[in-house]
Amino acid sequence: MASQPITLSSDGSNGPVLERELDESIYPESVVLRAVHALAPLVSGVLERPRPGLLKVELRFSGVAVENAVEVRSRFEILLNDFLLRKTIEQETFGMRRLIVAQAFDRANLQYPEFDDSDPATDALRLSHPDPETGRRHE
Q1: Per-residue pLDDT tens over the stretch 93-104
Q2: The pTM is what?
């Protein structure tokens, strides 16, 4: 099921209300919540789940002109895609980032830092110290 277009309505006294139904298999709840949170200075957001796999978002304005509501609607679309892309990149690079961190701390003595004789200012990765088992320098 594809995403539904945003509808703009007014509930009378409280100003414009943006409503959007989203397929949760496309836009996970965490992505939608981040997009709504990013708009918090402008709107209050309500997230409902009318049925499994469907998220309904209401962005409520108070004292905001309809022209600004249309601008916020566009911003919401951009934020949804931005946070979705960030989530995808995070998932796809998780293994590589974990390997980089593991490599960076491979020679560090984090359990007993008092035995770490490297000078962090000049040799943070202990590159100049020979390997105690092989005698080779880490280059």
Answers
A1: 998 988 888 777
A2: 0.65
